Structures are given as C-alpha cells and as structure tokens.
Amino acid sequence: MHVLKRNGQKEALDISKIRIAIGFACEGIDVDPIELELDAQIQFKDSISTKEIQQLLIRTAAEKVSPQTPQWQYVAARLLLYDLYKEVGHLRGYKVKDKLNGKYKPYNPDSFYQLVKTYAEKGIYGSYLLEEYTEEEFNTLSRYIDPDRDLLFNYTGIKVLVDRYLVRDEDGNVVELPQEMYMLIAMTLALPEKREERLKWAKTFYDLLSKHEISLATPTLMNARRTHTQLSSCFVLTVDDDLYDIFDNVQKAGQISKFAGGLGIYLGKIRATGAPIRKFKGASSGVLPVVKILNDVMIYVDQLGMRKGSASITLDIWHKDVLDFLEVKTNVGDERKKAHDIHPAISIPDLFMKRLKSRDKWTLFDPYYCKNVKDGKNLEDLYGEEFEKVYEKLERELPAYAKKEVPAFELWKRLLTVVFETGEPYIFFRDTANKLNPNKHCGMVYSSNLCHEIVQNMSTTQHIEDTLLEDGTIVHKKKSGDVVVCNLGSINLGKVYTKEDMERVVPVLVRMLDNVINMNYYAIKEAEYTNKRYRAIGIGVSNYHYCLVKNDIQWESEEHLEFANALFERIAYYAIKGSVELAKERGAYPLFEGSDWSKGIFFGRTAEENKRISKNGFDWTSLAEEVKRYGMRNAYLLAIMPTGSTSLIVGATPSVDPIFAKFYKEENMSGILPQVPPEIDKYFWHYKSAYNIDQEWVIRAAAERQKWIDQAQSLNLFIDPEQIDGPKLSRLYELAWELGLKTVYYTRSKSMTDIEECESCST
Length: 763
Known about the structure:
The structure is a single chain. This protein is of the alpha/beta class. It contains 27 helices and 23 strands. A seven-stranded mixed beta sheet has the order 14-5-6-7-8-11-22. Strands 2-1-3 form a three-stranded mixed beta sheet. The chain has a three-stranded mixed beta sheet with strand order 4-15-16. Strand 19 (about 665-670) and strand 20 form a beta hairpin.
C-alpha cells in the first residue's frame, strides 16, 4: 500500500511516520498518543494522501476537546502546525527535517529574507521592508525568532490565524509561518523609530506579540507588512444636511469599507421627513433613504467578496424620524423602509432619561428648524445644561409642524421592544461622553464608532468650491472636518495584570499604536488629517474573565468591583506615563494646549482627587505636573473594544465579557471550532457563564472600569427572555446611565424569536 506525498510522489505506507507526527503533537502534554491513534480510525487505502491522514488526526484531536480534557486543543494545534510547517517548507523549497540529526526544525532562518524579497516583487509584501532593512538585519531578526512560541497557540487560535491572517500567494497558498508574521508586523511598526534603534524596537514589539502579552487590531495584524498598510479598525463620519456632503460621505464610506475599515456614521444633522427643500414645503424624504443607501454600499463594497462592509448609524432620540429609524432592522412594517445590514444606534441626552423617570412628555424636532439656535450652533452641537435650556426653549417656541410630542415612556418602550427583537440599537449617552471628553476645548462628540468604544471629536467637512482649469481638470476644494480613526491594541490580562507587568508592557503598546499612525495608509485624506492632529489610540483588554478567575474573584462580588477599579487604574496610569515619555521624545499632539490633560484633569477629576481615590498608591499629582510640562503624545488613550478574532488567536476570553459558556462550538469563517475558557479543567467551578450572571453586576463592574477610561467600552448585556421582562431590561439601561457609562453595545439574547410586545412596561 502506498501514500501520496505533498510533492506528488508515492512511497510505501510507513505507520512509524504517522506516530512521529502524533508524538510531536503530544509531547509534554498530559494525553495518551495511543488514544489519538485508535480514535482516528484511519481507513487506509492505496494512494491515500499524507494530507488526508493529517487532517483526520487534526479533526479527531479537536473533537476530543471538552471542559474535562481541554489539553486536546493543544494537540490539535500542534498537528495543524506540523501540517503548516510541511506545506510552507515544500512551497518555499526547504526541508523541515534536519539531515544531520533527523530532528524537525520548522523554521528556516536562512529563507526569511528571500521570502520577503520574492513576494515583495509580486506585490504581496510591501517593498518598504526591503528598502528600510538590510539583508543582514533581516538575518539578525530571523535568528531572533523563537519557534517554540508557536506552542502557545490552541487549535482555534492557529486555525483562525492560518485561515485569515497569514499571508498567501497568488494561488491561495500560505507562504509565511506564525512567528514570521509577528516579526514582520514588528518590523513594520518599528519603521518610524530611529535607524539605530530600529532592531531593538522590532525585537521588543515581536516579544510582546509572540508571547501573546498583547494583541493588535485585525487590520493591523492583516495589513502590516503588506503593500497597503491600512492598519486602523474603524472610522467615524459626520454627515451634514447638504446633498453634496451626503454623497461625499457615501463615497467615503465606500472607500473606507474597500480597505476593511468599519464605520460609525452620524446622521443627526439631516432634516426630517417633510422638511422644506429650497423653501418647497414637504419636499424632504428624511433620513431613511440615506440609511438605505449606506446599507447598500455596505453590501456592494464587500472587500473582494470576503465579507460585507459594516456600519453603525446613529440618530438622536429627539430627531423627528427616530420612530421609523428604530424599525429599520425589525421584521415587521414596510420593507421599503428596512436596512437589515447596518447597525442602528441612538444618541440619548440626560434630559430624556430625566423625562423618562418622571414619565413626562418628549418632543421630537426636525433638525432643519434647529439650526443657529445659540451662538451659531445647532441644537445637536450643544450638550449638558446648555442643550437642555435650548431644547426646552424650542419646545415652547417652534411651530407645530416642526415638532412632534410623544410620551417619553412610550418611545422608550418601543426602543426596548426593538432591543428584545434584534439586540439593537446601540446606546450612546451623549452628555456623559461630552462632559468627560478631555478634548472638549476643540470639538464635539455626536456619536460613537461601529463597536461603541470610541468617543472622540467629530465635525463635518466644509465644501468650498469647484474650479474648472483650462486643461479640463476639475479641482474640488474643501476644508477637512474631524473624521475619527480608531488605532487599537489590547492587553492580555491572563498574562499581564500586575503593576510590574503593566509598567513594562503598556508604554510599549502606546508606542506601537503611535507608530501605527505614522505607518497607516489612509483611504480618505480627512482621516489622515484627523489622525495626525489628535494621534488618538485605543488600548483595550482581553482575557478579563480569566484574570478574575485565576485571582479567585467571583464576578458577582464587591471584590470584583475593587479589583476592576485597581486594575484599570494601573492601565490608565502607565498609558498616560507612556504617552508623556513619547511626548518628550517626539512632541505633544498639536491640539494639546487647552485640553483637560493640559490642566491636570484626568477622567474628569483633578490630580488630587485621583491621588486620593487611588487603590495602587500612585502619585497622580507628580504625573499631572509632568503632563503639564511635556504634554501628551496622544489625545485619547483608552477604549475597551471587542476582541473577538484576536481573543481566539491568543486563546483568551473576549474583551471584558464573561464567558459565553464553559464549552461550546463556535461557527465562523474557519468552520466549527471547539471553545473552552483558559484552564477550564482547573477553574471549572470558578467560571460562571454570561447568561447566569446578574447583569447589574456587569454594569457595576463596567462603571468601576469607566472611572479610569477616557473613551468608552463595548459593553454587551446578556439576557434570557424567559428570565427578564421590560421593566428589568429598562432598569439595566437606566443603571448604565446613572453610573456614568457612555455607551451600551449589543444586548445579546438566548433567543431573538417570538418576542412579544413589551406590554408589562405600561404599569
């Protein structure tokens, strides 16, 4: 009987070679190799391929993963790695087996430079790597690579990495190995460093990435080292009440989506249905047609067929079209008003929440009649007490056709019913966001990004004129507004949570993300303009639940709240310290003067207040003085993003969420993947799944974290419709507002079907 090798040659079947692969996979892991061999039940046939045998072993090991035997996920990972090493070695023309000692050496340092050279010539890798690093430097860094760090991957992690992140050739074959990927990302992000320090920083960045102490956003992992270095995750657009600007933003949305950027889009400035156009009454068709256009753009610009674009669209809760907007994703009503592929979000001021509590009326306005209401500003340009005074004045003075009165409670009840049905809209508490905005001196925040963790200044672009030149060239002149850009990275709290680790890791992550801004490819110029004015970054976390568990902390406990507060104070302190050190070296961000940072006000509190409430004994007053003297390199620092894919890669629990379940199978582009939390066999009784946790504890913990976060958190709520009703859900959102949260992301339900009208709210 013969087997078919990868090179197309046949050779006699040798069972010992199968056992070599199994031995490699099981070495040092508490499993029985014979058990894997027996359970695989390989049905040998003549000319069976070695690839088929390997895939069967991988599948068998993956199917053996359970909360009682999670170690099989590392066996499956090693089998997949073994397969990957063979495939890449064959493609690149080197032997994985050492001829001298017969041992396997998965990486060939001598082929690293040639790898980049070959595929840079084909337009797959960026030629800038060869222009900025010598062959000798490539060789130095290739020998710094540690192949053993591949053993940190579990099966899901390496499977996702292979399927979605590792670079492929024109025929779809993977050409790079995981540690080469990490090193090339590190080399890309080290390019802004001084020439003589570049190798040092490349090694430092590589160590943090390859040890899984940090992770970077998906666009950074995918595109750093490639020709188009679009490294940012998300962008936020502000659309003006102007036809030219509406379609200019449609074009921007398409360009951003083309390069895999997610979108947040604010439409609150657009006039409502029935508003005049050029003084013709009733001419406007309102916000919904624009929503539908953007929805279709997200479908059309599908990133080479890989995935649809994604956008969150925000409207204010006082906008006259808000009731129709709430229904864009429901399964009832006029299908012509539906937009099933966008994510609706609602911006809510404090005044609405106060009216809700008092069961008072609420007035919806047409933005067309709310322009130039104070000092040249529109209603949506105001917040806090200033907003409330103008809003109440408009309630009294606007004519009936410009407004519509509804009970605040009925509007809220409708919103909650839609949440029960769809898990959306996302919620943005605009007054809290703007009052605590450290850069309120130079802008306004109208909405958040796609995942609702970014809170940064936004503004519209001003279109000035079109000029026709004699040669037929048309020049369009415009003044850029602020288009928010999200430059994100996360700390793996399973590995980094002590004061010493934070001091070592966080400033380096700040540096890496600041370098992302320099290396970024910008699909639209407004994004480049904004990114370089603010140099905003967003540091988040993964493995939060595992961090609690390994420190013997129950989710529903006061101890959790104290731990969360102290932990995020550490992150905040060293992030600010890292940004100050960068400012000393590279200069402060251009808009630093006049910011809260420049006044020694961090997170809405003075340095003295921060020092008084510190649970870590940090000297916030000295740090504030240092900030005043040297400035900050970055206008925004902290944002707790979802870490779905990157958490899978590093084997972490996602972001700050509790675990979904102690064992489940996740279905995504990489197939069906077994999921168990870290060390589930050791901490089985410590983990509590999301749907079994009282969600008030989720919100209370988020409130403790928020005290040390300058932006926001992608906060998910997890509800069981059989266990929660309208009043209870309402209480969760009200509590989030009362405790100072800026956003609420998805409300994830065990079942989104058969949800009845929320009649119990009417008591």
